[in-house]
Amino acid sequence: MQTLEHNPGVARPSFLSTLRLSLSERGFFGLYTGLSASVMRQMSYSLVRIGSYEKMKAALGKEKKPSNLSLLAAASVAGAMGGLAGNPADVLLVRMTSDTVRPVEQRYNYSNAISGLVRLVKEEGAQALGRGLGTNVTRAVLMNASQVGSYDFFKTSLLGWTLPGTEYKFADNLVTHSLSSLAAGTFATTVCSPADVLRSRIMASTDHSLVHVLQKSLREEGARFLFKGWLPAFIRLGPNTVLLFVFFEQLKNGWRKLVE
After folding, report:
1. Helix H or strand E encompassing 50
2. What is the mean pLDDT of residues 27-46?
3. Burial profile 35-74: b = 16 or more Cβ within 10 angstroms, e = fewer
C-alpha cells in the first residue's frame, strides 16, 4: 500500500482490497511473501539495534540511573547502526512484498532473499545495497527511539502505579510488559509512518531519488500520503512489538537466573 502511487481515475486501494488481491493471486501463503527477507532483516537490523541499545543502557547505568534523554540518545544511535546493517534486507523485503500490486512486467520476482540479494548486486551493482539508505537510517532512528525508548518510558511509568478503583499494583511482570509494548507499538507506528512510506517508495523503484518521490507524491496525493498504510503497519508492528519485548524480558530474566 505504501508503494502504490496516485493513479488518476483509479480508486485508492483499501487494506481489505489489497488483502483480497493478495489472496486471490497467491492464496493464503501470499500473505507470507517476503518472509525470507523479513527474517534476514530481523537477523541484521533488529539484532544490531536491540543488542547495541542494551549494551549502551548498561554502560550508562553503571554509576547511576540513566536519564530519559540519555536513553533516547542511545536508542537513536543504536537505531542508526541497525538501519545501516539491515538496509540490504530492507530493499529485498520492500520489493518482494510490493510485487503483488505491481504490473506483471514491473515485478522483480525474487524467489527468496538469498537469490534476490545475488540478483540485486548482479543487475544493479553493489551500490544498490544502499538504495534508500538515508531514509532507512532516519526511519530506523525514529523506530528505535520511539519503540525501544517509549517502551522503557511506559514500563517505568507503570511500575508501582496502582490501577484506580482497585488494589492492583503494576509490577515487573507479563501484564506490565504487554501493556508497555502495545503502547510503544502504537506510538512507533505513528512516528515512523512518514519515513516508512518514503523508504518503501524509494526502495521499490530503481531510479527515483528522495526529492523526486517527495515532490511527486506531495503534488499528486497531498501530505496524507505520508500515513498511507498505517493500519496494516500497526497490525504488523503492534503484535511484533508485544512479542519482541515479552520474549526479550523473559530471556533476560532467564539469563540473569542462569548466571547468578
Report:
1. helix 47-60
2. 90
3. ebbbebbbebbbebbbebbeebbeebeeeeebeeeebbbb
